[in-house]
Amino acid sequence: MGGCSESSSVPLDKYLTRLANSLDRPITLNANRLPPLPRSRDLHIDPQSHSIGLLDLLALNSCELSTTIGTINSSLGKLANDSQRLLLELEFLSLAPACISALNQTADAELIATLQAAMSEKHRMLSTRIWNATLGGPEFRTFWKRPHRLDNYPANTGSQISLSVARLAELSNQWLNGNYAAGSGELEGLLGDVRSGDGGALLAALDAQRAALAAAAPAIQQRLKGASICIGNMPSPEGRIVDNVVRKFFIAEVQVWSVQVARRRNQLMPPVLALEQSLRKAMPDAYRTWARQRNQLLASATDAPREHVRHLAALLESCGLRPGVSST
Fold first, then answer.
1. Per-residue pLDDT at 4
2. Residue 155 CA: distances (Å) to CA of 152, 210, 226, 263
3. Of the candidates 3, 1, 8, 15, the residue with the CA atom closest to the CA atom of residue 255
């Protein structure tokens, strides 16, 4: 049972040890777990870049857009990280219409066509820019990183992370729908919150719960088919020990912790799924595969406590007992 090291500070290990002893059957944990997030290079998408030439830039001196174009074309703009480059692209899309309106429709027809083509391309690549700056970026990579220990997770969490991810999902939809000026000043702060998020800890907790409770099932079934824990229809002394272990360590500890983890999942995952939904067209195949495996974990981890109670009930009911019901 040492394979579940991530859960050493949560009640799963203690429960499995007590249950194995009371059943007099070994419980072996499966080492399979959710694969880590794909490599950064497999998640980053290189967007096509449309540049405005310097001669065209001279003709835009009366437009506020000229400063943005100059920054995009500068070495600083070309070396900007993905979140800063996203902000520049949003700034371009926000300022370009006013600049086009200010130009002479006849004398500047070629420049207007160049700007319109750039706008069209930048809007087409916007979901890729948002992807690179959010789900494909370093902040979400840190968000999904599994901790070495769960400690008292999820007791040390709050609502800020889920609120920030929800705001990113909202902004993503607004930007993709043409509201380019929305919340650009919030982006870096929101990504900073994401960096300190607990997505990896949540998955580790759910993975530990799934593995631990699944590992207990064979031992329970073996005992149900083997030496009885009953005397007639009544629990034997050994049966009462099993019943006590279930009450004291599963119901009073593991189930309480499982409810806390489920509550955290219900806080954290909906905004993550909303952000993924808004960027589904830009999502690389590597992330799609990983997300599908993650969602399978979420489903199986949700079912694990209910399945475990079903196995326990089959064992205890043979002696007239039920998990959570007074033995008197």
1. 46
2. 6, 19, 40, 11
3. 15
CB 327 within 8 A of CB 75: no
Half-sphere exposure of 252 (CA within 13 A, CB side): 9
The secondary structure of residue 1, as a DSSP letter, is -
pLDDT score at 318: 83
Q: Which amino acid is at 55?
A: L
* pLDDT (tens digit per residue) in 288-301: 999 999 999 999 89
pLDDT at position 323, please?
A: 67
Sorting pLDDT into bands at 50, 70 and 90, what band is 249? very high
Closest listed residue to residue 27, CA positions, set 326, 303, 239, 308? 308
> Which residue, 160, 214, 251, is CA-closest to 29?
214
Please give the backbone phi and psi of residue 234, each rounded to the nearest 5 degrees, phi first: -110, 150
Two tokens at 154? Answer: 């999820």
**Alpha-carbon span 115 to 112, nearest angstrom:** 5
| Joined tokens for residue 59 | 């003709």
Beta strands in the chain (DSSP E): 230-231, 234-235
Rounded Cα gap, residues 143 and 135, in angstroms:
10
**Number of other CB atoms surrounding residue 126 within 10 Å:** 21
**Which pTM does this prediction carry?**
0.89
Give 261-283 pLDDT, tens digit per residue.
999 999 999 999 999 999 999 99
- Rounded Cα distance between 86 and 128, Å, is 9
230 φ, ψ (degrees, to nearest 5): -120, 155
Is residue 180 scored above 50 in pLDDT?
yes
Helix (H, G, I), strand (E, B) or coil at 179: coil
Instruction: Look at 325 and 166; give whichever has higher pLDDT.
Output: 166
Distance in Å from the first CA to the final CA of the chain: 33
